[in-house]
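dumping this here before i forget
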Amino acid sequence: MTHCILIGAPVDEGQRRAGCLMGPAAYRVAGLVEVLQSLGHTVEDRGDVVRPEPGHETHPNPAVHHLPEVIAWTNALSVAARNAMPDGMPVFMGGDHSLALGTVAGVAAHAKAVDRPLFVIWLDAHSDFHTPVTTSSGNLHGTPMAYASGREGFAPFPDFPAPIPGENICMFGIRSVDPAEHEMLAETEITVNDMRVLDEEGIVAPLKTFLERVRAANGMLHVSLDVDFLDPAIAPAVGTTVPGGTTFREAHLVCEMLHESGLVTSLDLVELNPFLDDRGRTAKLMVDLVGSMMGQKVFDRRTRSF
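structure:
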């Protein structure tokens, strides 16, 4: 069994649609603790990270907004992640996806300290491969994977502690990539399993290939699960909906395979905006997916109103 460490990351500044700061509370209300405990895991809730007072950083790209606040979150979450990793499996409850600037940095620092390679599976509609230089929206939730890959253009952010090689990153369920991101991704060894790949090859083969690579390297695996990985028809509580996402069954299959691999060492739950939800529908589904990632089987599924 696993010691799960819940860490709230009420980050709302990485995008412009208010509400993600309510995400950590929604996961608690939706029964995340109870689901994990019912599966035999121990749970420690370390509460919500508090953002330090932001500095006065600026960027030459005038589109970039809330830069000091996001840098402050990045520093705080990196410390929280690095402190939690030796004690169990941290589950970062977001909060928009800019939180991964900090969580992945902290996990990477720990992986470097214990001399193990870090792998990342990015379950998302978006590649989030912009830099502060290339973003036209100025939304820093679209930058974490470029940061983790060691791309240039992130000053005045702190240097990423141990850039992750492209071959250690798998993007899964992608279906919205800007031209600048596409150009930068083409220069990397990152595996991009977009929805065309998943439609043609199915879920199992591409995911199994990546997990075998993690196992062969004795790697640590960070999972970053964005609500918009799911089709908005079943998960409406996200401000960045893209049609054509994974179905209920596909998403649970991904999570069950991740559990069966025994490789997952840390987890982000991001972009849940309870203000956009329908009676907690999306929050409950995300909690159910965490259950599958932590050992719940298909025949354990509870009857729901949705």
